[in-house]
């Protein structure tokens, strides 16, 4: 959704609110409209409930949106009774039915729009074949995560992986086999990543990971563990290949330009690939010479933080 349009800016504002703040805004707005209806019943402030319903359905979900719709429908009917002459029970029932039906329809429409919006956002951010983040979104989220880690004094590991001999699979067994390797790898890699980690497809058979590591001292073993687990994922494929991994250790104090960091991880990956493939090279950001010796594929380790 275009963030320069008023609707886009409103959607962005609602996205930035927590559920607690959204509920607070809904309750406060509903109370304000109900108070105006009570103080000045002849004006008719009931239409102002509509944007409140829209906000609830968009920011909180279908169930909450429908609840707010029913609640505000009753409030609107009660205010209407004070502003008009007495009505028969039949008319009162009809008023309730009309208000509830109208407000629930509005909540349902906004919920449907939100689901479509979420689907479009998902597809816009994801690689369609593997379901991982696409290159642009990965780098954008990576830059944000790296900046946040600097403020919280956390050490990160940025890794780039290239599937060895992937082109041979495409050439000898066809593109469907190659696609199967990519999806198998992406699914397996995503399953071992923690919620706060990032994974993206940045090229044809290249993926990138961003992970928080326990400490600088444990970074080498941590990276080796990840490589071993990903190697096991590939070994279980119907078309087994290996992977070369370049990992860049990012201490809290180093300058954090995402383009330079990605380039450093990429260089480490190529050193691993040129060493004979199926290897891992771990470098450290900020070092004048980021050369590191390649490490052969290790046995599967078990590190804290991973299942």
Report what the structure shows.
The protein is α+β, with helices and mostly antiparallel strands and 307 residues long. It has helices at residues 6-16, 19-39, 49-59, 62-83, 89-125, 135-152, 166-173, 175-192, 219-235, 258-274, and strands spanning 156-163, 198-201, 206-212, 243-250, 279-284, 295-296. The chain has a 6-stranded mixed sheet with strand order 2-3-1-4-5-6, with helices on both faces.
Number of separate strands: 6
Order of helices and strands: HHHHHHEHHEEHEHEE
Radius of gyration over C-alpha positions, nearest whole angstrom: 27 Å
Using the alpha-carbon principal axes, give the shape: elongated
> Which regions contain 5 or more consecutive residues with pLDDT less than 50?
289-293, 297-307
Name the strands of the widest sheet in spatial order. Answer: 2-3-1-4-5-6
Let me know the average pLDDT.
Answer: 84
Class derived from helix and strand content: alpha+beta
Task: Measure the end-to-end span.
Answer: 37 Å
Tell me the fraction of residues in β-strands, as a range.
Answer: 5-15%
Bin the helical content.
55-70%
């Amino acid at each position: 959704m275009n963030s320069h349009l008023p609707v886009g800016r409103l959607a962005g504002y609602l996205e930035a609110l927590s559920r607690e703040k959204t509920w607070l805004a809904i309750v406060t707005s509903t109370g304000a409209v109900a108070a105006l209806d009570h103080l000045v019943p002849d004006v008719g402030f009931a239409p102002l409930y509509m944007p409140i319903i829209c906000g609830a359905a968009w920011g909180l979900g279908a169930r909450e949106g429908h609840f707010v719709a029913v609640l505000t429908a009753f409030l609107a009917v009660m205010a209407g009774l004070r502003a008009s002459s007495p009505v028969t029970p039949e008319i009162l029932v009809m008023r309730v039915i009309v208000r509830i039906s109208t407000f629930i329809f509005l909540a349902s429409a906004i919920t449907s729009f939100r689901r479509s919006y979420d689907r479009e956002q998902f597809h816009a951010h994801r690689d369609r074949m593997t379901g991982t983040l696409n290159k642009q979104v990965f780098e954008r989220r990576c830059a944000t995560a790296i900046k946040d880690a600097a403020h919280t004094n956390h050490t990160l590991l940025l890794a780039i992986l290239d599937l060895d001999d992937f082109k041979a699979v495409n050439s000898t067994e066809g593109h469907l086999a190659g696609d199967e390797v990519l999806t198998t790898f992406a699914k397996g890699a995503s399953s071992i990543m923690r919620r706060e980690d990032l994974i993206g497809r940045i090229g044809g058979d290249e993926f990138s990971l961003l992970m928080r590591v326990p400490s600088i001292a444990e970074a080498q073993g941590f990276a080796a563990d990840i490589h071993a687990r990903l190697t096991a994922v590939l070994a279980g494929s119907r078309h087994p290949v290996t992977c070369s991994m370049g990992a860049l250790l990012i201490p809290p104090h180093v300058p954090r330009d995402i383009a330079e960091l990605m380039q450093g991880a990429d260089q480490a990956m190529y050193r691993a690939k040129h060493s004979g493939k199926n290897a891992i090279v771990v470098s450290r950001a900020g070092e004048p010479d980021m050369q590191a010796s390649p490490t052969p594929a290790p046995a599967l380790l078990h590190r804290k933080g991973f299942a």
